[in-house]
Write the structure tokens for this entry.
Amino acid sequence: MKLSTLVERIEFECLQGSVDVEVKDVVYDSRKVSEGSLFICIRGAVVDGHKFVTDVVSKGAKVLVVEEAVVVPEDVTVLLVKDSRYAMACISAAYFDHPAEKLKIIGITGTKGKTTTTYMVKSILENAGYKVGLIGTIEAIIGDKVIPASNTTPESYVVQQYFAQMVDAGMDCVVMEVSSQGLMLHRTAGFLFEIGIFTNIEPDHIGPNEHESFEQYMECKGMLFKQCKIGIVNGDDEHLEQVIKGHTCQIETYGFGKNLDLRAENTKLVSKPGYLGIAYDVKGLMDFPVEIDAPGKFSIYNSLTAIAICRHFKVSVENIQQALKTAKVKGRIEMVKVSDEFTLMIDYAHNAMALESLLTTLRDYNPHRLVCLFGCGGNRSKMRRYEMGEVSGKLADLTIITSDNPRDEEPQAIIDDIKTGMAKTNGKYVEIIDRKEAIAYAIHHGEPGDIVILAGKGHEDYQEIKGEKHHMDERELIRDILAGE
């Protein structure tokens, strides 16, 4: 492919060489460079791609995209850009022949609800006959192919590669989670979303390796609404106006507020042995009853979001109702049968906002006891530990503090931080470092009518310790515990 074609949608200065050269492939990992490659120098949190120019040129790279001048042989074309990540997104889109223009792409951003909503949308649209690709926190799904995820929103090159594979597989549309990091790092630049979604926002992902402030976090979320045709947003969120400030799209609202475009009314809890659900009436732009096999107010928000999206795809009410009954997401309020007397569920709640929302929701079902098992990740903000400890101490009848991806920190030190938050409450707790032992304690001490939450891991099937990921799936741990192993 001609370099001139790859760079036709970006601004650049050609420091040396010519854009009238052939490019064999586009690479941002120096280890993958071969003869005729275009190499993009990315400044990462740990590694700066500019340091590898000598190495990549020796491997045969013929074009370099840089943010600063570099010294290389004259036969290498060097293009200077303001932001190499943005350039990579546009170059990758061109390299794969702009596949996003052949798909309707739905992007969902927010502190929580992204994953569940993507699966709900996929379920509804597929139920209506659409072929739907998915890119998210758990996996990417392209037809029958499932690719485990390493980031919520992959690098722009990978996003475009997935889009191209989806086009080849005959997909009509794509639903994807769009993280604030992904927006900030231009992983979703270079194309226009058909629909952009805002679920909610609370202070989270703020720290040395994430966002420097809540204001920057909101600003990054808001970038989606300058890159989509239609914005569907949570009209109940107090930060909504700040998030969508400067938007360039048509806006629709959903939630509980009386003046919102799509509303939930007449909410009622549905509770049976081993089953927690919720029913409500959809009002406003649509009018019909719905019941979902998931508890709580956040489940209403998630399903309302999915309904608001699918309205634009002319999906019938019957299809929506059927699909919402069957949509399930691994690790999101996932009920696991361990007893006829109490309920146990696995959920990804791994910050104070998500945990508070989950526990408050489950408290509405009047359990005998609400038991919350969780830990916090190492190498992350200590504030999250204090806050989660305080939330569980206030809302749970018993907290079981354990490990969750301690990474390079000592598990006991993390537990001690959680206990600092617990100390602000009168909550009862036990501490058991080993997560399997902690889960066994929760199961063996379950009482009739209890609701037991295993929070934090959700869909994850590993424990990250000292730079290594060790296999650990809570479903397998539960099975072994029940088998007496």
Notes: The chain has a mean pLDDT of 93.
